[in-house]
Design a protein that fits this description.
Blueprint lengths: L26 E5 L12 H7 L4 E3 L8 H11 L2 E6 L12 H18 L3 E3 L11 H19 L5 E4 L15 H11 L4 E6 H7 L3 H7 L4 E6 L15 H10 L5 E4 L13 H6 L1
Helix pairs in contact: 1-2, 3-4, 7-8
The structure holds ligand LCNOYBR7 and magnesium ion (MG).
Magnesium ion binds next to loops.
Amino acid sequence: MPPRTRGAEPTVVPPGTHGEEATAELRFDANLKWLFTELPFEARFDAAAAAGFRGVEYSSPYEYPAAELARRLNDAGLEQVLINTPAGAPACLPGRVAEFRAGFSLALEYAVGLGSDFIHVMGGRRPAGVSRDRAFAHFVTNLAWAAEQARGTGVRLLIEAQNKRDSPGFVLDGQEHAAAVVEALDTDHVGIMFDVYHAQIDEGDLITKVTALRPRTFHYQVADPPSRHEPGTGEIGWRNLFAAIRAGGYDGWIGCEYRPAGETVAGLGWIEELAR
Ligand SMILES: O=C(O)[C@@H](O)C(=O)CO
Ligand SMILES: [Mg+2]
C-alpha cells in the first residue's frame, strides 16, 4: 500500500460499535491473482512490495515449487497470508473425498512451506442433481477432516460464502451460514473469510454483519460491486465499513481481491482516502 501517512480517523462511529475506541490501523494485503496483472505472476511479488504491501495472497501456488515462492516472498520482504485449496476438488462434492483430501494435504504442505497464515478451504458449487443438504453435509465432513489435519501446524482454515449471482448453487448461503459452520466445528483454527463483495451482493447490512460476526472472522477481502473494482468505485460506504472493522479491534489482514479499474498502482489511492 502507499506510504502510511496517517489520514484523518473516521468521524462516524457506526451503529453497533457503542463507541469502542477505533485505533487499529488496517493492514491490506495484495491478491496477486487480481492485482498487478500488468506483470507476469513471478514479477508481482516485487511490484507489490514496491507499492508498499507487506503481505500477499493468491488462490493457487501449485504451478510453482513452494521453495521458489518462499524465495520470492523472502526477497521481497512479504508475508504469505492465504492460499486456496486446489480448484479441482472443492469440499462439497460427493464422491470426490479422496481428491479433496489429496488436494487439502497438498495445500497444507504449501501453506507450511510458505509460512501462510491461512488456507481457504473452498466450498464450491453443488453439481446438478445433488441436493443442497447432501452437498452441505459433504462440505462439513470434509472441513472437519481438514481441521484435524491442520491442528498443531499453525495454519488456520477459512471458509467463504460466495454470492449466488457469480457462483450459482454455492454450498454456503451467506455469512451467518458460514458462522454457524464454524461454531458447530467448535475449534479455534477455523474461521470466516468475510468477502465484502459477495456479502454486499447477496446480503447487504454489512456493518451489522461485520460487527456481529467479528469473533468468528479471521480474514476479510474487499472489492466494490457491481464491477468488482477498487473500493470507492461502486456502491459500498467504505469509510463507515472500515471504521466498523477497526472499531471491533481487528488486527488481521484485509485482502485486496479486486480487478483494478486501470493500472494497479494508480488505483491504490483509496487506501489513504477511505481506510485511514
Ligand atoms: O471470492 C473469491 O472469488 C475468492 O476468494 C476465491 O477464493 C475464489 O474461489
Ligand atoms: Mg473472495
